[in-house]
Amino acid sequence: MMKEFTAKNGEKVLLRPVQIEDAEQIIHAVAQIIKSGAYIQKESPRSVEEEQIFIENMIELDNMYMTALINNEIVGIARVIRGELEMKRHTGLFRTWLVHSAQGKGIGSEIMKYTLKWCEKHNLHKLCLTVFASNGLAHKLYKRYGFIQEGVQKEQVKIDGMYDDEIFMAYFLNK
């Protein structure tokens, strides 16, 4: 599944499945995000080899792992890892990130549309995610797309010496 669109600032953006060759760019972007102290649940990027193995595993398990590119440069990813047990195969865990320079351009909204379409195509019933309470922009985006809050883990993370809540949200498909 590929999708091309024009961002709010006029840049052409391509959303497409991740390929093995993307591993180096992905870990470089992750390193940038970690360094900026942004909302990412990762303390260090994988090695290129580890990322390649992760990509192969995602493809093999038929999970979603897509990338957002501007001028052939990876500016974000999104993934859905489906439940491994048969009793949870109808669920998926969603994770996404965008580098700072790609935020506020409507790319997050297009990633959500892409993801929900992928979930429908793969017969998922429930898409889950977590978001930090202080990440108001992402929280608003998820609510706008119909995600509901299922719970809150108070003071679950500590970022720059400050505690933050982790909000559990879900989207139900095929209602």
What does this protein look like?
- With 175 residues, this protein is of the alpha+beta class.
- The protein has a single domain, classed as 3-Layer(aba) Sandwich (Aminopeptidase), CATH 3.40.630.
- It is built from four helices and eight strands.
- The protein has an eight-stranded mixed β-sheet, sandwiched between helices.
- A hairpin with a 5-residue loop joins strand 1 (3-6) and strand 2.
- The relative contact order is 0.15.
- The model has no long low-confidence stretch (mean pLDDT 92).
- What is the mean pLDDT? 92
Given the structure, what is the number of helices? 4
CA-atom Rg in angstroms: 16 Å
Q: Please provide the ordered H/E string of secondary-structure elements.
A: EEHHEEEHEHEE
How many strand units? 8
Structure summary:
With 175 residues, this protein is an alpha+beta fold. Helices cover 29% and strands 37% of the residues.
What attributes does this structure have?
175 residues, alpha+beta, Aminopeptidase, eight-stranded mixed beta sheet, 37% strand, globular
Topology:
Elements: E1 3-6, E2 12-17, H1 23-36, H2 48-60, E3 64-70, E4 73-82, E5 91-98, H3 107-121, E6 126-132, H4 136-144, E7 148-159, E8 162-172
Parallel strand pairs: 5-6
Antiparallel strand pairs: 1-2, 2-3, 3-4, 4-5, 6-8, 7-8
Helix pairs in contact: 1-2
